[in-house]
UniProtKB/TrEMBL annotation:
<dbReference type="InterPro" id="IPR058625">
    <property type="entry name" value="MdtA-like_BSH"/>
</dbReference>
<dbReference type="GO" id="GO:0055085">
    <property type="term" value="P:transmembrane transport"/>
</dbReference>
<feature type="region of interest" description="Disordered">
    <location>
        <begin position="1"/>
        <end position="46"/>
    </location>
</feature>
<keyword id="KW-0472">Membrane</keyword>
<dbReference type="GO" id="GO:0030313">
    <property type="term" value="C:cell envelope"/>
</dbReference>
<dbReference type="InterPro" id="IPR050739">
    <property type="entry name" value="MFP"/>
</dbReference>
<feature type="domain" description="Multidrug resistance protein MdtA-like barrel-sandwich hybrid">
    <location>
        <begin position="97"/>
        <end position="380"/>
    </location>
</feature>
<feature type="compositionally biased region" description="Basic and acidic residues">
    <location>
        <begin position="1"/>
        <end position="11"/>
    </location>
</feature>
<feature type="transmembrane region" description="Helical">
    <location>
        <begin position="55"/>
        <end position="76"/>
    </location>
</feature>
<protein>
    <submittedName>
        <fullName>Membrane fusion protein, multidrug efflux system</fullName>
    </submittedName>
</protein>
<keyword id="KW-1133">Transmembrane helix</keyword>
<keyword id="KW-0812">Transmembrane</keyword>
<feature type="compositionally biased region" description="Basic and acidic residues">
    <location>
        <begin position="25"/>
        <end position="34"/>
    </location>
</feature>
<dbReference type="Pfam" id="PF25917">
    <property type="entry name" value="BSH_RND"/>
</dbReference>
Length: 515
């Protein structure tokens, strides 16, 4: 109850009670006066005694009326300018402290009703198993790092082999190309030798006729015969050289008069044995590097593919980072690092600390207890994040707004301690409608009951060190309806709805409801 109300009631009681007592005493004395004797003065008539008593009673009633007017009017004005309810309670945040790891408690450093600050150590779990797990994960990381370095070294070796096979393939292709060009040159030499043989044969035949007619000398005949023999030998040698090249290319030998003597298959570079071997080795090495992987590529296409990789030194570094084996080793290393991070985090979770400032309550663990992940250890009630939830009647909400000043009287401190506050928000629904199973009034039997809606009141100037408030304690709020509003969203709630629907006030009332 506000102090002014209690003072008004106490003062009016202190003024009215003595006056009434004196009036009654005077009346009793008048009634109990002994009868006058003959020597005394004459007794006044009864009409005079009645008039005096009536005047005294009127005076007392007038004093009572004046006192009621002086002290009652402010009380009535106070009641009309405020909204109050006794259905209000202190509320605040309660943080439940739970274990994030499974383990055995080694120490509990706080007890119920101890005040703690954010970051204070509350409970400590046995850390030895978690230290061992961290050591194992670190060893796994070191092993994975070594495997990665080994994979990179192996890839560098494979790269060297790939480039070696690449040069071998290029050499084989160039060898086939050179041999093919040499075959054409040998066939051209064979054709030249055959032309020389034809010319030598003609010269020999003519010289033979001249010798018969004794026109030419015997010496010239011998020269033409020697030239013919040399030309025949040149043809045989040129044919042998051409067939030798064909054999080196994996082709069949051809006779002197064959038209296919200088013919080379167009896919010779894909069927030549040395090229096939170099190509297979290159494909195997390149597949390990994830570069060239198509068996349908021609040798020249494979060489062009390798040429696109760029310089050898930079190619080695890039391939070493992109090789499948290296990628697998890197993925394994990342997985072990994540496992190590989780193990180190679990080790830190062995120290359970306070997340907020407050007071410990509902401690339910002791040293030696085995706790599971998520098991509640205790709760911390906040002292600073405190507010009041006041359940006002729905008929009172029409006058309430966000930002209105509130005086709060807490039962535990009495009427002389006032806490200041302001309305900060309204719950858009009653408690019953927000329940898991809201009530359904569809049976036909309905009794209208005035509902209550929670209104949140934020405290102003609250110091938990001087006058702490406990969650759940009873409060009587007095909301001042005529004082200036302040704070964010001041003046909203019902007023905002009225502005959005200005015609709502002039709308007709529902059937059966009186305005």
């Amino acid at each position: 109850m506000p102090p002014e109300m209690s003072e008004h009631r106490s003062e009016s009681s202190s003024v009215d009670a003595p006056a009434i007592a004196k009036a009654d005493a005077a009346v009793d004395r008048d009634d109990k006066l002994p009868p006058p004797d003959s020597a005394s003065k004459a007794v006044p008539p009864p009409s005079q005694r009645f008039t005096r008593r009536r005047m005294l009673l009127i005076g007392v009633l007038g004093a009572v009326g004046i006192a009621a007017a002086v002290y009652g009017i402010p009380w009535i004005r106070f009641v009309l300018s405020t909204a109050s309810t006794d259905d209000a309670f202190v509320n605040g945040h309660v943080t439940f402290v739970a274990s994030r790891v499974h383990g055995q408690i080694s120490r509990v450093l706080v007890d119920d009703n101890n005040r703690v600050h954010k970051g204070d150590l509350l409970v400590e779990l046995d850390k030895e198993p978690f230290r061992d797990a961290v050591a194992v994960k670190k060893a796994a990381v070191d092993t994975a790092q070594a495997d990665l370095e080994a994979a990179r070294a192996a890839v560098r070796g494979t790269e060297a082999q790939a480039w070696s096979h690449r040069w071998q393939l290029q050499e084989a292709v160039e060898n086939v190309e050179n041999q093919t060009a040499l075959l054409h040159a040998r066939v051209a030499a064979l054709k030249k030798a055959k032309a020389t043989l034809v010319l030598a044969q003609q010269e020999f035949d003519r010289t033979s006729q001249l010798v018969v007619s004794e026109t030419a000398s015997r010496e010239l005949y011998d020269q033409r015969q020697a030239a013919l023999s040399i030309a025949r030998a040149g043809v045989v040698q040129a044919l042998a050289d051409a067939n030798q090249i064909r054999v080196s290319l994996g082709l069949q030998t051809q006779p002197e008069d064959s038209a296919d003597l200088d013919q080379v298959p167009p896919d010779l570079d894909q069927t030549f044995s040395s090229i096939l071997q170099a190509q297979a080795e290159l494909i195997q090495a390149a597949a390990e590097l994830g570069v060239v992987h198509s068996y349908n590529q021609s040798p020249k296409q494979m060489l062009e593919e390798f040429e696109k990789l760029g310089p050898v030194d930079r190619t080695f570094d890039r391939l070493a980072a992109e090789a499948p084996t290296v990628k697998q080793a890197e993925a394994k290393l990342e997985a072990t690092k994540r496992d190590l991070a989780v193990a180190e985090l679990d080790l830190r979770y062995c120290d359970v600390v306070a997340e907020i400032d407050g007071v410990v309550t509902r401690r339910n663990v002791n040293p030696g207890n085995d706790v599971q992940v998520g098991q509640s250890l205790m709760a911390i009630r906040s002292l600073s994040e405190i507010w009041v939830d006041a359940n006002f009647k729905e008929t009172q909400l029409r006058d309430l707004r966000i930002g209105q000043a509130v005086d709060l009287y807490v039962d535990m401190y009495g009427d002389k301690q006032v806490f200041g506050g302001r309305i900060s928000g309204f719950t858009m629904g009653t408690g019953s409608t927000l329940a898991l199973l809201p009530p359904q009034n569809a049976t036909g039997n309905y009794i209208k009951i005035v509902q209550r809606l929670p209104v949140r009141i934020e405290l102003e100037g609250y110091d938990p060190d001087k006058k702490p408030l406990f969650i759940g304690t009873s409060v009587v709020p007095y909301v001042y309806l005529n004082k200036p509003l302040s704070g964010p969203n001041a003046g909203t709630f019902l007023q905002g709805f009225e502005q959005q629907s200005p015609a709502a006030g002039s709308a007709a009332s529902p059937p059966g409801v009186d305005k």
